[in-house]
From TrEMBL:
It catalyses: Hydrolysis of terminal, non-reducing alpha-D-galactose residues in alpha-D-galactosides, including galactose oligosaccharides, galactomannans and galactolipids. The lineage of its organism: Bacteria, Bacillati, Actinomycetota, Actinomycetes, Kitasatosporales. It comes from Streptomyces hyaluromycini. GO terms for molecular function: alpha-galactosidase activity. Residues 625-691 form the Glycosyl hydrolase family 36 C-terminal domain. Its EC number is 3.2.1.22. Keywords: Glycosidase, Hydrolase. SUPFAM superfamilies: (Trans)glycosidases. The keyword Hydrolase applies. This is Alpha-galactosidase. Belongs to the glycosyl hydrolase. Pfam families: Glyco_hydro_36C, Glyco_hydro_36N, Melibiase.
């Protein structure tokens, strides 16, 4: 909902529990008024009457109070907008008009400003208690305008003392780990220079002063962009805090706009809650399920992926054998990973040639897909369309289609180069290859990988080669949108060597994400804990693989611990089923059956992090309607002491709940002992506890 003052210069956006207000002064200074608990329009108007402090020689009253700081004029903070024409650099804008547009997904407010032939539109939309902001910059009067930076938003926080900043950091196989630290004066900058979202940081931050998991005010921001990005959190000299962020890491240039062209930024979304970090997470999850994730009301199937069982050494008969074993334990989606196409017998060849290997699949993929369907499962494949091996028919025909710098060595990581998806001919080639592939066999699922960063991001012959960084991502989005429209029943997983491309932008075009290449069930607890701060379990692909864990650490863990760890998200199996014993297969079948029973709660329910993975007992709760499930993990037991009890959250204190494992009836706030004091023992043990309201 958008409320507007009679003078048309104060605007208030309100959700169920929060409000966001801004005001335009008579001098066309756009000021931030409020972001927090719900207020009325009269409150916003009263806030707008408070005068700015005066100017003095070394400070600006606009800094930390301006809604969208531009470059130029009496401003010293990091600008959200930086443009350059042939005559000058910077912005001196004038307000032109505002517009509102009602929509089923929320009312949109648009504020239009103009500066000498440059049109700047600030967009606002509130969905639930999440404020979406983005900007459009258009060139309407210059031969060209260089867009150095155009952030979707700057977020201004209220005056508080003792701010604490939370973020998600990591690296390959150790993504999405949560860290919190006091915010100090100056800037804290996170981001990616790598051409994709990256394993090192997720584009999300949260700030608080004294919040706990279930109580206290939390402000959070998340960027919907799948390329290079930057978020800067600044505590200014007067202690005010402002957050800026958007596409591109540096100010070296985004795009060159010819006359008549425009740029629309990605969305930078913000959320306030007084429900602590858990309340913030549940609000983010609900927002993504309602507005971001395609078909979010459709639960993700249990999948089997062949990679760890076979790596590159695959054949049609071998895959069929694995498919039979997968179907027998209740798997619903069978995925053939890398190695099915071109000359792909190792990672040294074949990328770019998206036709089935004639030796391995002499009649194409259709016979195997039909066989998998006959077993009662869906069929999926792995692709990596944005990459090419130098040893491929594609590269031999079009060596100029890759990113490279003229006169420099082309860096090969994982024996591959990055295709320049900013080129329309590359986009068209990939569309023809993938559309033909998806039309050639009954394929239900595509695992879309991206296994290296940009290193030589050049474009010889292009007048403005910097645009590659933005237009590669826009080309990716356009290709995904086109494929989804042509093949609406094909689900797509976003993968980037694990969690290297996870953000709201890619999630709006894919059905789930590969959280990490690290499938060790103990390591995954911390990765999944961090992931849940912003993203829901519905999109978090999690596999049960072999023990000892052969990929990373050789850790030995029980099938029970591996399954319960992976049941916290979209369950998958990635172990070599041909080597599992009959007893292991039978146990796996029981866990898959149990997961299917609790899947609606995990993938669509409200999530409560009862205890973080900090070395002892950790647990997470999911509640949907009258049903609740708790997944608990005992990492290590000390001195023979039993695991502590858990007090559940979000239940009706006046209701009674039956524990389906024991038949015990609990009334009021449920304190769980079953499976904790008696069931969890030793190291790396796990428990699943179900309750139903009666």
């Amino acid at each position: 909902m958008v409320d507007i003052a009679e003078n048309g210069r104060t605007w208030l956006l309100s959700g169920p529990g929060s409000s966001y207000a801004l005001h335009l002064t008579e001098a066309d200074e756009l000021l931030h008024l409020h972001w927090g608990a719900r207020i009325q329009l009269a409150d916003a108007e009263e806030l707008s009457t408070r005068a700015l402090p005066g100017y003095w020689a070394f400070e600006s009253p606009l800094d930390g109070r301006e809604e969208y700081p531009v470059e130029g004029g009496p401003r010293f903070v990091r600008p959200s907008l930086s443009v350059r024409t042939e005559e000058r650099r910077g912005t001196e804008w004038a307000f032109e008009a505002y517009e509102t547009e009602a929509g089923a997904d929320g009312d949109e407010l648009r504020l239009r400003f103009r500066d000498d032939g440059i049109l700047i539109t600030l967009h606002y939309r509130m969905r639930g208690d999440v404020v979406e902001r983005w900007v459009t910059v258009g060139n309407e009067g210059h031969a060209r305008v260089e867009l150095l930076r155009a952030d979707p938003a700057a977020w201004t926080l209220p005056d508080r003392e003792g701010w604490r900043l939370s973020q998600l950091h990591g690296r390959w196989a150790a993504e999405s780990r949560l860290t919190s630290a006091p915010l100090t004066y100056g800037e804290k900058v996170i981001g990616s220079r790598r051409g994709h979202t990256s394993h090192q940081h997720l584009p999300w931050v949260a700030l608080d002063t004294d919040a706990t998991e279930e109580r206290g005010e939390v402000w959070g921001c998340a960027l919907g962009w799948s390329g290079s990005w930057r978020i800067a959190v600044a505590q200014l000299p007067d202690a005010r805090v402002q957050i800026t962020g958007g596409a591109g890491y540096d100010d070296s240039g985004l795009l060159m706009l010819a006359e008549g062209e425009s740029y629309t930024s990605p969305v930078f979304a913000g959320l306030w809650t007084d429900g602590g970090f858990g309340g913030a997470s549940r609000a983010w999850h609900a927002y993504q399920r309602a507005y971001i994730i395609p078909d979010a009301d459709r639960d993700r199937p249990v999948l089997f992926n062949s990679w760890e069982a076979t790596t590159f050494d695959i054949s049609e008969d071998q895959q069929a054998t694995l498919a039979r074993r997968a179907a027998a334990i209740g798997v619903e989606l069978f995925v053939v990973d890398d190695g099915w196409f071109g000359a792909r017998t190792s990672d040294r060849a074949g990328l770019g040639d998206w036709t089935p290997n004639p030796d391995r699949f002499p009649k194409g993929l259709k016979p195997l897909a039909d066989y998998v369907h006959a077993l009662g499962m869906q069929f999926g494949i792995w692709v990596e369309p944005e990459m090419v091996n130098p040893d491929s028919d594609l590269y031999r025909a079009h060596p100029d289609w890759v990113q490279y710098q003229q006169g420099r060595k082309r860096t090969e990581l994982r024996n591959q180069l990055v295709l320049n998806l900013a080129r329309e001919d590359v986009q068209e080639y990939l569309w023809e290859q993938l559309d033909t592939l998806l039309s050639s066999a009954p394929i239900d699922y595509v695992k879309w990988d991206f296994n290296r960063c940009f290193t030589d991001a050049g474009w010889p012959g292009e007048p403005y080669p910097q645009r590659l960084w933005v237009d590669h991502v826009r080309g990716l989005y356009a290709l995904l949108d086109r494929l989804r429209a042509a093949h609406p029943n094909v689900a797509i997983e976003s993968c980037s060597g694990g969690g290297g491309r996870i953000d709201l932008g890619i999630m709006s075009r894919t059905d789930e994400v590969w959280t990490s290449d690290n499938t060790d069930p103990l390591d995954r607890l911390a990765i999944q804990h961090g992931f849940s701060q912003i993203h829901p379990a519905r999109v978090m692909s999690a596999w049960v693989t072999d023990s000892p864990n052969h990929q990373l650490n050789g850790r030995v863990s029980s099938l029970r611990f591996r399954f319960v760890s992976s049941m916290a998200g979209a369950l998958g199996v990635g172990g070599d089923l041909s080597q599992w014993t009959e007893e292991e297969l039978a146990e796996a079948g029981r866990w898959v059956e149990l997961y299917k029973g609790i899947r609606p709660l995990v993938q669509r329910g409200d999530q409560f992090r009862l205890r973080p993975p900090a070395g002892g007992l950790s647990a997470v709760q999911y509640t949907l309607g009258d049903e609740t499930v708790v997944l608990a993990w005992l990492q290590a037991q000390s001195y023979g002491e039993p695991a502590p009890a858990l007090r559940l959250q979000g239940l009706d204190p006046a209701a009674s709940y039956e524990c389906l494992e024991t038949g015990e009836v609990h009334r009021g706030a449920v304190l769980l002992h079953h499976g904790l004091r008696t069931g969890l023992k030793g190291d790396l043990d796990a428990s699943v506890i179900r309750l139903r309201r009666i």
